[in-house]
Design a protein that fits this description.
With 556 residues, the protein is an alpha/beta fold. It is built from 21 helices and 19 strands. Helix 1 crosses helix 5, helix 9 runs parallel beside helix 11 and helix 15 packs antiparallel against helix 18. The radius of gyration is 27 Å and the shape is globular. The mean pLDDT is 95.
Length: 556
């Protein structure tokens, strides 16, 4: 019996660890293969590609980002061959099996961790007994049992990280790595709250696979552990192993619970970890205690703020902080305070997300308690609740856009720091909100714009506020390029005049010798901008991305 496993990843650089685990556990007992696709691909075309393999069984891994495409894929597969048995699994379908059986053209749903269940199910399909397997739901019987894997048994199989099929593409993709499963916390909006207890993979398994990946040319490893630093002994082990085996051009990312960071751990990180090696994602979500209590989230923001600030002062770990808009009890004005509280910490990135009413979560079941209105289609984003209106959430979505493009992108760091330190000191939400309102007025597109348009429009906002940031915007713009750009976001000089000036400077041998330059560098790698009468700024591009610009002044 031929079996084909698949999923839709958000981007090509992403990899599905789930498919690889299902494959390695079952490949020696069944005729099984897998292939990943992306959200950009058409379900009908994907179905035709899969059907070309003539599978009798197709397994689809379903997540919040690929729900609709997975549904369409199942539909097209059944149109091509009604006899194909379609199995779906994944976090999106594990807790609302009947809905998917009733509304999708599928045959079976696997709930929970399916590595071993799949093999049992495939055996049962061959023998016509699949109705009796726990954690497997069919049209005849719905199971509310969620499969839970014995990790000590799982590690006996070949590694999902060392497959031959992945070796050539590792350097171009993100590797997702897990050292544990489960979460000890009970956040009511999160599917992880439905799992009981935390299980850790054996240290020998972690060591051997990390060693393989570090010695490969992979550039980014993302640890999937829900709360990586839950267990001090485990955390110390992984951190010390990564430090001992440090390799340049490799970065690793963890989800960290900031409350659990000790003074000793922070000092260890700040004094031992190479810069840009570790990246921490820290979910703060809200600084309003009643909202956190309403969703059973434990957090001491004062302690979180202290720990985050110490990490930022260490200037070693990249920090990515998370906020959620639309939580119970937090109205618009109170959310602004949460935003300002978290932004004030000064992290490199602040991810502003919106509450998602995930299937199976307690918050979705109890949505009536807070008069939640949310999109019935994935990703089930909140539209409004008793404490915050649709109009207010839409306004926050505008802030999300400007925050992402002007702060999180890192492209405007000089200008943003200059504006925040002066005109908008401690008024962070107001700044991004006013930019969003200005962008709405000029009808700036959310997609399909170029870099020059973004710089030009942001400058338009600054001019409307009587803020002259021409110098920092110029430097921010040039920092986006490794080679001399063809244009400039704000054309101050005629192209013919610019060319004449560049040629003249290139003939000045004394200037070239004093600054270790050549005529070719001036003519091919240098931009020129006026500073004052007869004074110009030269920016020289080396062809390599550098943190600081190489600039010189020239006076005629």
């Amino acid at each position: 019996m031929k079996v084909f496993l698949t999923t839709f990843n958000a981007k090509y650089i992403h990899t599905s660890l789930a498919l690889r685990l299902l494959y390695v556990v079952n490949k020696d007992k069944h005729d099984i293969s897998f292939e990943e696709f992306t959200l950009r691909e058409t379900p009908q075309v994907v179905a035709e590609s899969i059907a070309a393999h003539s599978p009798e069984v197709v397994g689809i891994s379903v997540y919040i980002w690929n729900v609709e495409l997975s549904k369409e894929l199942a539909h097209h597969l059944k149109r091509i061959n009604p006899n194909i048995i379609i199995i779906i699994g994944g976090p999106e379908v594990s807790y609302d099996q009947k809905y998917f059986l009733d509304s999708w053209e599928i045959d079976l749903v696997v709930s929970g961790e399916g590595e071993f269940v799949l093999g049992e199910l495939l055996n049962a399909i061959e023998n016509g007994l699949c109705k009796d397997i726990p954690s497997v739901s069919s049209h005849e019987k719905v199971s509310h049992t969620s499969a839970r894997v014995n990790l000590n048994e799982l590690v006996k199989y070949s590694s999902p990280y060392t497959l031959d099929v992945d070796k050539k593409s590792l350097k171009n993709r993100i590797v997702y790595f897990e050292t544990s499963r489960g979460c000890p916390y009970q956040c009511q909006y999160c599917l992880s709250s439905l799992e009981k207890g935390v299980r850790f993979f054996p240290q020998s398994y972690i060591e051997s696979n990390l060693d393989y990946l570090i010695k490969s040319d992979v550039k980014l490893i993302k640890f999937l552990d829900r709360t990586f630093n839950l267990n001090k002994k485990h955390t110390d082990f992984v951190f010390e192993f990564l430090l001992k085996n440090y390799r340049q051009k490799l970065s690793v990312q963890f989800e960290i619970y900031a409350d659990l960071l000790s003074v000793e751990m922070i000092n260890f990180l700040n004094t031992n970890i190479p810069k840009d090696y570790f990246r921490f994602e820290i979910g703060i979500q809200s600084t309003y205690a009643p909202s956190n209590l309403a969703v059973k989230r434990k957090q001491d923001f004062e302690l979180v703020a202290t720990n985050v600030k110490q990490l930022i002062e260490g200037d070693v770990i990249d920090l990515h902080l998370d906020l959620i808009a639309g939580l119970p009890l937090e109205g618009y004005d109170r959310f602004i305070q949460s935003f300002n509280d978290v932004f004030h910490l000064g992290a490199k990135e602040l991810q502003l997300g919106f509450l998602k009413m995930l299937r199976g979560t307690a918050l979705r079941r109890n949505a009536f308690l807070y008069d939640y209105c949310f999109d019935e289609n994935a990703p089930y984003e909140v539209i409004s609740n008793r404490y915050i209106s649709k109009e207010e959430l839409d306004r926050i979505r505008g802030v999300e856009f400007t925050l992402d493009k002007l702060w999180n992108s890192g492209r405007f760091k000089r200008t943003m720091q200059r504006v925040i330190q002066n005109e908008y000191n401690l008024k962070y939400f107001q700044l991004f909100d006013e930019i969003a309102q200005f962008f709405n007025e000029i009808q700036f597109p959310r997609i399909g714009y170029n870099l020059e348009e973004l710089f030009f429009s942001f400058n338009g906002f600054l001019v409307s506020k009587n803020i002259d940031a021409t110098d920092t915007l110029r430097d921010d713009y040039y920092s986006c390029f490794a080679i001399r750009p063809f244009g400039y976001w704000n054309n101050e000089m005629d192209k013919r005049e610019r060319k004449r000036l560049i040629y003249t400077i290139g003939q000045n041998r004394k200037f070239l010798e004093e600054n270790n330059l050549t005529r070719k560098i001036i003519e091919k790698q240098t931009t020129i901008n006026p500073l004052s009468q007869n004074r110009y700024l030269l920016t020289i591009f080396s062809g390599q991305k550098e943190k600081e610009l190489f600039q010189l002044e020239y006076e005629f």
